[in-house]
Amino acid sequence: MPTDKKLHGKVAIITGGGTGIGAAVAKRFVEDGARICIVNRRESVLDEVMRSLPAGTVIKCPADVSVAGDVQRIVDAALSFGAGIDVLVNSAAMGSEGSVAAADLAEWRKTFEVNVMGPLMLMRAVIPHMSRKGGGSIVNISSLASLRVIPQASAYCTSKAALNALSQQAAVDLGQDGIRCNVICPGFVFTEMAESGPLARVARPDMATFMKSVFEDVPSRKPAVPEEVAGICSFLASDDASYITGVVIPVDGGTSVLDPIPAMIRRAILQYETGQSRT
């Protein structure tokens, strides 16, 4: 039966599918007609997402993407739908703090295991299944921090830059098999973690006013919400993007086009002039 749902009939694996961007991608994919296997280390968050979706559209696989045995369990879980694998979304990630000089090396290794080796192992695991179906789509969730680095986040920024390069290499290597690979680089996304984490303490008592101030010079004038990233992800997973591969797409409300120094100087001048006019 014809349908206008652009992911109708597709089976997708979504890592990090229990929270934040991954959970939003899960809900959008089902809305657009896909059946999905959602992955997270915490089973409780997977259960919460499953309860929000129609029965039969989603299966869960509690797993760690940096563990080779878990990667095969993820693929096997997705294959239980009996329709192969069409889409892989690598959204699971970890952050870490520390400069190039001072960051803990064990933390560096773990960050790369999750943010680079995990996506690589999953990509390698799904390639044969996508090839048998004549192609597929891989969407890797990177970060604006892969293009514009963050102070004291050396492992995270470097690992996300590596994910960009890995994705473009995959686009070149897998194109002959009909497999596309693209990267989304979100800027700041307002998730549950942002709302309840350290940022919430800084922003008290009024998060809305704080965000308005932070994004005053950004073209969008606001942070993203996970659903805005999910929409781009669904497009890249669909046949509407059949001629798009190897691209790195900032989804950042225009943050990456802004030179922050002149913007901050302009704001400081305005604040000074406003203060002077009141005296």
Tag the structure with descriptive keywords:
279 residues; alpha/beta; Rossmann fold; 10 helices; 7 strands
Brief summary:
The protein contains ten helices and seven strands.
CATH homology superfamily of the largest domain: NAD(P)-binding Rossmann-like Domain
State which percent range the strand residues make up.
Answer: 5-15%
Alpha carbon gap, first and last residue: 72 Å
Number of E-state strands: 7
Helix count from the secondary structure assignment: 10
Radius of gyration: 20 Å
Instruction: Give the averaged pLDDT, no decimals.
Output: 92
Order of helices and strands: EHEHEHEHEHEHHHHEH
* CATH-defined fold name of the largest domain: Rossmann fold
Using the coordinates above, name the CATH class of the largest domain.
Alpha Beta
- Strands across the major sheet, in which order? 3-2-1-4-5-6-7
- How many domains comprise the coordinates? 2
